[in-house]
Structures
1.
Amino acid sequence: GAVVSQHPSWVICKSGTSVKIECRSLDFQATTMFWYRQFPKQSLMLMATSNEGSKATYEQGVEKDKFLINHASLTLSTLTVTSAHPEDSSFYICSARPPGQGVYEQYFGPGTRLTVT
Amino acid sequence: SQQGEEDPQALSIQEGENATMNCSYKTSINNLQWYRQNSGRGLVHLILIRSNEREKHSGRLRVTLDTSKKSSSLLITASRAADTASYFCATLDLGAGGTSYGKLTFGQGTILTVHP
């Protein structure tokens, strides 16, 4: 089946530093990947849609200059949290959708736990 | 954007019992999907029901969809301790295309605990 990986699985960083999270589709090519954020005991909130070869589309209220997204290839999207602050501590999850008409399922990565101290 | 509402927020049952979770949404949809999330992990896709379907089965899972009431339910029969997880519904709103294409909107989720 379709497998999506994320790296790292967890990271602790100091306030003011930047952190990069990778999302890879391992056995399929994904022109579109999605980045979500999930706070404890809450649901997933879509942050942005990452499109290979073009700029990401950010959801309302998400700062594009703070959460930099790069979809450099059909199997890799990266999310960089710049100048991280404690309030950015969260569980970040990516997903990828295999190409093809009528393919609506998304396959999710295992998530990255970010803690900003 | 639409937001799915799920109830109950938490459900605690004994092994062997059935678990029913409900989800409501606000706008027109192409399909509705149910996902499972074990604590601190990613999501696993369980089942997808299209807007022109009323009921769907997969193993011990049964999903219903009532588009007139904008609601769906997930039934897990003969529950097991391993079913303990959070369950989320998610709707796919194709809308006018563009940025909404393929975008899932998740409900708040139901935390299911199955006691052995």
2.
Amino acid sequence: AQRVTQPEKLLSVFKGAPVELKCNYSYSGSPELFWYVQYSRQRLQLLLRHISRESIKGFTADLNKGETSFHLKKPFAQEEDSAMYYCALSGQGAQKLVFGQGTRLTINP
Amino acid sequence: GAVVSQHPSRVICKSGTSVKIECRSLDFQATTMFWYRQFPKQSLMLMATSNEGSKATYEQGVEKDKFLINHASLTLSTLTVTSAHPEDSSFYICSARGVQANYGYTFGSGTRLTVV
């Protein structure tokens, strides 16, 4: 079974501080992992895919298979980063995308 | 880039009536579409996966007779909430994945359903 856990429901940091949003997963095969962001009153947007290894808006995420984690990081938070962040997993074959509970990130000025 | 259009964005209906929500992939062919439900301040809960031309696969606990899904073409999937009740009021979101895996998953803007 696919499972994604985001342990922090709320995270608040000051502008300019580093940010780390945690994501752990459970899947027996080789997963495909994603981070999605949802700004206020907007649709879900793809932020990162682990297979593309891109850095978007200064965010990065590394897949750690040993720790089954895919934490999202940014060295210097900006106020416009305030949003809801979802970690998601797609398994082999089944293709369905399963979401974590989400973390609401608030960047304080 | 890949765009998914979901319609209507908001709908209010009376108890006992049925409501149809459409999800269209505008610039790509979607072999697989997904329907999610999102309660206030909660995450997206996968309801079902639909593949073009075949029956949808429903997640455990989702009533297939209540939530009818049709995926008749590579660009259109519909979700019909039948005999709606107030507890069906929610935010419904569709997602589509293209023929090519590198398309990833693209999401619609969602439909706010209110049953009165």
